[in-house]
Specification:
With 142 residues, this protein is mainly alpha-helical. It has a domain at 6-102. It contains five helices and two strands; from the N terminus they run αααααββ. The protein has helices at 6-12, 15-22, 32-50, 63-79, 85-102, and strands at residues 119-123, 126-130. It has a two-stranded antiparallel sheet with strand order 1-2. The radius of gyration is 21 Å and the shape is elongated. The termini are far apart.
Length: 142
Amino acid sequence: MGYITIQDIEKAIDRGTLQQLTDDLDTGDVVQEIVDEMIETATDEVNLYLREQYTVPLTDVPKLIKQICVTISGYYLYLRRDLPDKQEKAYTNAVNILKRIQTGQLKLFNQVSTSQGPKAFSKRGAYFVDMPQKGPVNLANY
């Protein structure tokens, strides 16, 4: 099962364009099976990157992953016809984000650290880092 539905794709690609991208037999309808296939392809591609850091398939799907799946599904739908530059750029950006998730540079979920390292916290919209002190702090020169 994919991380998105045809309704998610229809928020990004209007129904008329979706029909042009999927209706190989000129029936005048969106071909659900083709959309479903592209959703599955996109979900599989996303999971290839996520599996380095997370158990896939995800049970709690972040909005970012849904947006990436819509972008990748759209890319594959457009690839069936003429691929606009903006679709290719969007796909490249999506894959770059997935690569950062794969390497751990981006985290999908807030994870509680069990290490004794710095701890980040938010207070009234500002973010702070609580660093353990290694000795006295000299503020005389500040």
